[in-house]
Amino acid sequence: MLKQLELKLHWQMEQQLSKKQQKWKNITQRFERNPLPYQLYQQQTMVAKMSQRLAYSIEKIMLKEQRHFQELCTKLDGLSPLKILTRGYSITQTKDGKTLTSTENIERGEAIITQLKTGKIISQVVDFL
Fold first, then answer.
1. pTM for the complete prediction?
2. What residues have CB less than 8 Å from 29, skipping those under 6 apart?
3. Could you state a single Gene Ontology molecular function term (predicted)?
């Protein structure tokens, strides 16, 4: 009986050892196929490619946003009061600087200031039409 237990224990130990050896062999083969320096090289190459793609994407987005910004600046410039004056329009204000948009805000005899492209005119309200 003791001999049987000893044989069984010996057999189990050999099985365990065999499993561990097989596992070690598998790990070793895997590293032989793809050694660590090669794996590191692969990862570095992948990171470099991804970095290039990221830089390209950032540049593309920046150019798109820059064009959009330029378009907005052009639109804003067209709405500038000074630009409007260059197209022949004028801005009329009261003496205290309030812009006139209606005849309701001014009375006969009151002085008004009209801003033109190249200067200002001071006028006096005589009548309303």
1. 0.46
2. none
3. exodeoxyribonuclease VII activity
